[in-house]
Amino acid sequence: MSKSENAALATGEDQFDDQYNLLDLVAFIRRNLGILLGAALIGGVLGWAIAFALPAKWEANALIRVGQLGFVGIIANPIEPPLQLVDRIKNTSFQNDVLRSLGVDTGEDDSDAKLFRDTLKVKLEKSELINLTLRGMSPDEAKLNMSAVVNELKAIHLRMSVPTTHRWHQELALIESELKHAKTEAEQLAKSLGAGAALLNDRNFPQAALLSNILIAREGELRSFRDRKLMLEEQLSPERTFATDVLGRVQVSTDPVFPKKSLFAVAGLIMGLLLGVLLSILRPVASRA
């Protein structure tokens, strides 16, 4: 027999085996259809019932915009790098601070603390916004817990940004004072030069030249003070410097996100069907025994 004939014979045997196995499967389903359908139905009903028995949970979502300290002409500096903020939120110490602010026991055995830690999820979006999700036993609880997380972040970033913004405000106040003083002095010099211009002679010419040079210097200082003042005002503007806060508002799911009754019903149906298959396989063995 040639190799091609052997290959054709082997292919035919494989097709026959596949067909035989398929017929066996169809026959198995027909013999045990009642058990399979009954077990699947019971499993689906049990899964649905378990979903109703489990306590419902709602999910709050917040999109956080990290605050920044604006520098004119330079890329704005976030108060805290977004990746570092993600790690901060995941840190147990931060989570314990939030729990204490809520009046919740931080112990490992406390159910509220465990739910908080297990469901607090943080994700850094491509736009460098921070996406937070958190679950609670009611819509109000989920929103309250999320608000506590946001408030803790805002308080931390406020402490981090205050020294810089305070220094800018101090510098701005000092520049405004210096600007006022330099402006008054420049006006007085201009008046002196104007009054002496009519009496200008060889004797008072050096004094007039000195006053003129001083006036030019004061005008240069005035321009410098004005430029610095404008820059500080731009840095402190709400578009350049702002606090960490929620973009929009905290959103809470209208319906519970857990348990999903349809998923529990499908999972129960599959488990019941598997159990039905097992019972159908074991039944002939038990009857022979």
UniProtKB/TrEMBL annotation:
Q: Which GO terms describe its molecular function?
A: protein tyrosine kinase activity
Which terms in the GO cellular component ontology are assigned?
plasma membrane
User: Does the keyword section mention Transmembrane helix?
Assistant: yes
Presence of the UniProt keyword Cell membrane in the record? yes
Q: Which InterPro entries match?
A: Bact_polysacc_biosynth/exp, LPS_length_determ_N
Task: Provide this UniProt record's keywords sorted from A to Z.
Answer: Cell membrane, Membrane, Transmembrane, Transmembrane helix
Q: How does it sit in the membrane?
A: Multi-pass membrane protein
- What is its subcellular localisation? Cell membrane
Chain ranges passing through the membrane:
33-54, 263-282
Q: Which residues form the Polysaccharide chain length determinant N-terminal domain?
A: 20-69
Q: Which domain of life is it from?
A: Bacteria
Q: Which Pfam families match?
A: Wzz
Q: List the protein's name.
A: Wzz/FepE/Etk N-terminal domain-containing protein
Q: What is the lineage of its organism?
A: Bacteria, Pseudomonadati, Pseudomonadota, Gammaproteobacteria, Methylococcales
